[in-house]
Amino acid sequence: MRNLPRHNSLYRVFPALSHSSFRWFWGGQIISLIGTWTQNIGQAWLVLQLTNSPFLLGLVAAMQFVPTMLFSLHAGAWIDHLPKRKVLIATQTIMMILAFALAFLVGSGSLQYWMLLIMAFILGVSNTVDVPTRQSFIIELVGREHLANAIALNSAIFNAARLVGPAIAGVIMGVWGPMWCFLINGFSFIGVLGILIFVPSIPHQEKVAPKKETLGKDILNGLNYIRKTPSIFMVIIMMGFLSTVAMNFNVLVPVLAKIDLQEGALGYGLLMSTLGFGALIGALTVVIKSAEGPQPLLLLVGAFGLGIFNVVVGLQNTYLLSAFFLAFLGWSMIVFSASANSIIQITVDGEYRGRVMSVYSLVFGGMVPIGSVYAGTLSDFWGAKVTFVISGILTLLFMCGIVFLLRRYRKDEGHENSGLI
Questions:
Q1: pTM above 0.85?
Q2: What is the dihedral of CA 161, 244, 131, 3, to 10 degrees?
């Protein structure tokens, strides 16, 4: 497939879209991600309907991310030695089957809580392989020159889906019930699978690394590479802490809506949509800045924003103000995470890409079980609003420590720029 002319004004602003293979893949993901968010919202509300327990909701979220914690490092070493397109076809097919299975169980009235735990774990295994593979696959579609723009565009559609999916889910659950959330997600995989199977052009495909080392040695080499690359190492540390403490929205927002604010399914869906709206604006902020390369300052702004707006959301007593400040929280989350992703992917050597992105997935998603249990437990005792405040204060204290360490590193090592400040 030929790329569209580079002089087109659209492709000057969004140069990654000038690559036809990326355009197809990006377009397919728009539909798939809306389906994913529709299922996420339906599943969270279904758990609360079955159990009325924030802790058990957090446990389901934890089960979905336990595989990332356990197997992410192994998946990264494995990904570096396999064609990424074939891996994605396999993982997307498994997730489609799981969505249809959940729709059947809900529709037949046979779903029980323990089944949700098992299916969340299986979905987590698939995601453990799928997420770092998709992250590593992007450079094969656009090359290194337009990688930052492609990452930002992916964040934009992810958060457009975060905006649209919850709103769709809220309406669907209110009118037809949660079964349709899972059914829609199942059908949403068909498009991206068709694109992966039938679009052959991968213009910047990286060579699959030859299998020379044992799996354990491959993992150790990847970890040593991260440790010796300061920009990657510090971003990984930041992502690990913030994803554990400051980004537990799948647990806290449904509890905030149902228990603290006494809202129904539609109110919950709209709260998630405002979070998604802010995240979409954050992604567009990163898209606009991506032409200048990764933005370390944006990384720090997003991180501090997570601390500030967690506190602010927790101090609100009305639905409208909670929704308003959740949008700022969503903006901060995506400005931080998209900037972190760009810094890592621009910095990493191709030989280690799968392993480094698996560690990124580990600290971004693999810490969710700990974060979910943390958020669910605190919410059980004190409610979602107090948990938001505690999380924000811990985040601000942590980030002050990080800035202090970065400035000290810069001074002691004689670096004019540490890569982050």
A1: no
A2: 60
Confidence check: pLDDT of 99 > 90: yes
Where do the H-state alpha helices sit in 9-83?
Answer: 9-13, 20-51, 54-79
Asked whether residue 3 is assigned to any structural domain, the reply reads: no
| Interhelix angle 368-382/384-413, nearest 10 degrees | 140
The CA-to-CA distance between both ends of the chain, in Å, stands at 41
Query: 97-101 — which CB contacts under 8 Å span 24+ positions?
Result: 97/186, 98/122, 98/123, 98/126, 99/35, 99/39, 99/182, 99/183, 99/185, 99/186, 99/189, 100/182, 100/183, 100/186
What CATH number has the domain bearing residue 163? 1.20.1250.20
- The pLDDT assigned to 34 comes to 87
Cα distances from 306 to residues 152, 367, 394, in angstroms, run 19, 17, 10
Is residue 367 in a domain?
yes
* pLDDT number for residue 15: 76
* Residue 1 lies inside a defined structural domain of this protein: no
- Measuring CA to CA, how many Å separate 299 from each of 44, 231, 363, 396, 410? 29, 12, 16, 14, 17
CA distances from 32 to 28, 109, 196, 312 (A): 6, 26, 13, 33
Six-digit token string for 344: 């890592």
Dist. CA 211–CA 133, nearest whole Å: 18
Q: What residue numbers bound the domain in which 276 lies?
A: 12-413
Question: How many of the other CB atoms lie within 10 Å of CB of 9?
Answer: 7
Q: What is the pLDDT of residues 190-239, one digit of tens each?
A: 888 888 887 665 655 555 555 556 667 777 887 888 888 888 898 999 99
The CA distance from 297 to 335, in Å, is: 10
The 8-class DSSP code of residue 362 comes to: I
Q: How many domains does the chain have?
A: 1
CB 102 within 8 A of CB 122: no
* Residue at 315: amino acid letter: L
DSSP string, 381-419: HH-HHHHHHHHHHHHHHHHHHHHHHHHHHHHHHT-S--S
- Domain-located, residue 418: no
Q: Are the beta carbons of 84 and 353 closer than 8 angstroms? A: no
pLDDT in tens, 31-82: 888 888 888 888 888 888 888 877 788 788 778 877 877 887 777 777 777 7
Of the pLDDT bands very low, low, confident and very high (cuts 50, 70, 90), residue 383 is: confident
**Could you count the other beta carbons within 10 Å of the beta carbon of residue 125?**
18
